[in-house]
Amino acid sequence: MFSPDYFWRYSRQIVLHDVGVEGQEKLKDGSVAIIGLGGLGSQVAMSLAASGVGHMRLVDFDVVSTPDLHRQLIYSERDVGYAKAEAAANRISNINRDVRVEPRCEYVSEENARDLVGDVDLVIDCTDSFQAKYTINRVCAKLKKPLIFGSAIEYYGNVATFEPWGDVCLECLYPELSDEDYPSCAVAGVLPQCVQVVGSIQSAEAVRYILGSPTLLNTLLFVDLKNYALDRLNIAQNPSCPHRANKPLSTPRVWEPTEVCSRNGRRQLLMVLESKPNVDEVYERWVRLGDAERRGRLAVEVRKPDGVYTYTAAGAILGEVDTRIDAKTAKQIITQLATTASQT
Ligand SMILES: [Zn+2]
Q1: pLDDT digits (tens, 9 = 90+) for 291-304
Q2: Which fold has domain 4-234?
Q3: ipTM value for the complex
Q4: I want to staple 79 with a disulfide (CB 3.0 to 4.6 A). Which of 87, 99, 212, 325 is the partner?
């Protein structure tokens, strides 16, 4: 039975016909993995924490960057340079101390997906890459985990719920798309309110799923914030679904430095290391190179004359570099840092 304080806190949702005391118990016992802590994931995490969902695993490899702040409302200015997983977990603990929150600074890959979602009731996909989405779809199918998919770009968004071990899955709807063929938020732009609406719908759907009555199972909700319109579309089984056909996922995991985006006088670079050196060790090594600083438990930053490079516990170095440095030189700097970081 709930304590009077607990009851008081959630009283405005307990009175809802669909929730009640029994529903609130389900939320309290519920556990979710939120994968991707950008615009969608930060909205989902805050909303579910406030609603009293008991256990939350927060997964992202990235660090908070200044252009995130216009739409990722979970972060504040002082979080810039810190791992998103850690900054988001701190904020969630401030919103609701009863939530057991678990930050995981990791990439989703075929190797770790099972570990990330194996023990939760529900998976909420808030990533911005098809590669990650397909990996999540497949592991959810294998482990029989329900999946709430979301995406948003410019003024438009999608939400759908799948039980991908059944007839219909994400790859029935969007088969074999490649990240290279689609613009990112950095290129196409995104309306902050669009990700907030889409994230709010994902979290409403998560609550409904936990309560036992999802609305968007095998249904695509198309959100149009340009015309303030919502459309629903039934999703049918796709006879040539690559997942059903057991087609292997293409895994373009490169260990080369990659330029992610170049805009407004800044280049963003990413390099994934083959090993995942400990953040403390990287700090020790980078201190010898210059102006290194810890950014919480999960990240360390080094400042160079024309750029800032951050190593996160996911085993990645992210660089934000002035465009006066040409791409080749920037890649050389990040490669050198990677070599230093993984020295034994
Ligand atoms: Zn399918």
Answers
A1: 899 999 999 999 98
A2: Rossmann fold (3.40.50)
A3: 1.00
A4: 87
